[in-house]
Amino acid sequence: MKTLLLLFINVSQHALAVVMEVYAGEKSILLPCRFPGHIPEDDPAVMWTRSDLDPKSVHLLQKGGDDLRGQNQRYSGRTSVRSDALKTGNFSLTLRNPQLTDSGSYTCSISDGRQEQRLTDIQLQVKDQQVEVKVEEGSESVILPCKTTPDLPEDTRVEWTRSDPDLVYIIQMKMNEDLLRTGDRSLTLKQPTQRDCGEYICTIYRDKDILKQKVVLQVKEPFLSWATAFLVLLVLVLVVSGGLLFCFWHNFMSLFQGKVEVEEGAESVRLPFKTTKNLPADAKVMWERYDERMMVYVFCREPDETEQHEDYRDRTEMNEDPLTTGDLTLTLKQPRQEDSGEYKCLVWRRGDFIRKKSVLLTVRGL
Question: Is the pTM for the entire model greater than 0.70?
Answer without folding.
Answer: no
